[in-house]
Amino acid sequence: MIAAILGASSGIGYEVGRALQAGGHQLILIGRDRSRYRELLTSDDHFVECELAVLASVATATETITRKFPQLDLLINNAGTAGRRGVTIDGFELAFAVNYLSHYLLTRLLGNPRRVVNVSSEAHRGVTDLDPDQGLGPTRSLLGWREYQYSKAAQIAFTHSLVSRGFDAYSVHPGVIATNLWRRVPAVVLGPLTRRMKPPAAGALPVLRAATDTALDAGDYVTPRGVIAPTPLVSNPEVAERLWQQSEKWVANYLP
Q1: What is the tally of structural domains in the chain?
Q2: N or C end of the chain: which has fewer CB within 10 A?
Q3: What's the distance, CA 175 to chain centroid?
C-alpha cells in the first residue's frame, strides 16, 4: 500500500505517517525540507520537495510522484497554515493557496488515488459564503482567521466534488490540537484554545479512521465525536461545483 502525505514533518501528519508505516504502508512524504522528515523516512519511503504556496512547485512534485508511482492507494492532504497574511506569486490569498488550491491541483494531477482524505476543521462553520473570488489575494483580515476558515470550508466542498466524480474521498476535523500550525498566532488570541488543545496523537485518530475505515460512506466528515454533518453550505452540490470549476480555471495551465 502506497500512501502520500502532505505535512508529515511534525504534528498530526507525523503521527498519521508513523501509524500507517507501522501498518505496512510505503510512504511518500511531500514537504519543503527533507531534513525535517528524517525520522519517518526509511529505505522504502520517499521524500518529494514541494512549496505548496507555488502552483508550479506543486505541478513539479506531482510529476516526480507519478513517474515513480502511477497509482496511489491513499492521499492525505494534511499540510496547512494559519496566522499568516500574504499573497502568493500566483496571486492567491496565502491560506487559500496552501490549505486548499494546492491540494486541489495535487489531487487532480495525481490522477486517481484510491482514497483521498482532506484534513479540514470545524472552523468551516464560520463561513457563510463560498464565493471563489474570496481566494484571490491579499489577506484582508488582521490575523488571517477569516481566510483560514474559508480555506477549510473549501476543502470540505472539494471533498464533495471529488465524491460526485467517483472518488472515495473524506474530510476530517482532527480536533483542537497542539501543533506548529498555531505558532504564528498571537498567544493572546490562542489563550482560550490552548486549554482545550490535545496532543497530535489524538488528532491523528480521526484522520486514520478516514484513511482506513471501510465502513465509512464516501463524503463522510469524520471528527473526534464520530461522523457528523458539516454545514449545508459546504455540502451544497452547486456551491461545490462552482468552486471546482473556478479552481480548474485557475490551475488550467498545469492540467493535462
Answers
A1: 1
A2: C
A3: 15
State the pTM of this model. Answer: 0.92
> Per-residue b/e over 119-142, b at no fewer than 16 CB within 10 Å?
bbbbbbeebeebebebbebebeee
Q: What is the pLDDT of residues 110-167, one digit of tens each?
A: 988 999 999 999 889 999 999 999 999 899 988 888 999 999 999 999 999 999 999 9
Q: What are the CA-CA distances from residue 112 to residues 47, 94, 133 (Å)? A: 20, 27, 27
Query: Over the stretch 55-109, which tens digit does the pLDDT of each residue have?
Result: 999 999 999 999 999 999 999 999 888 778 899 999 999 999 999 999 999 999 9
Q: Which residues pair with 138 in a beta bridge?
A: none
Residue 191 C-alpha cell reads as: 489563550
The set of cell numbers assigned to 135 is 481566494
For residue 75, list its beta bridge partners. 4, 116
Alpha helices by DSSP H, listed for 69-124, are 94-96, 102-109
Q: Do 87 and 94 contact (CB within 8 A), yes or no?
A: yes
| CATH number where 223 lies | 3.40.50.720
Containing domain of residue 43, as a range? 2-254
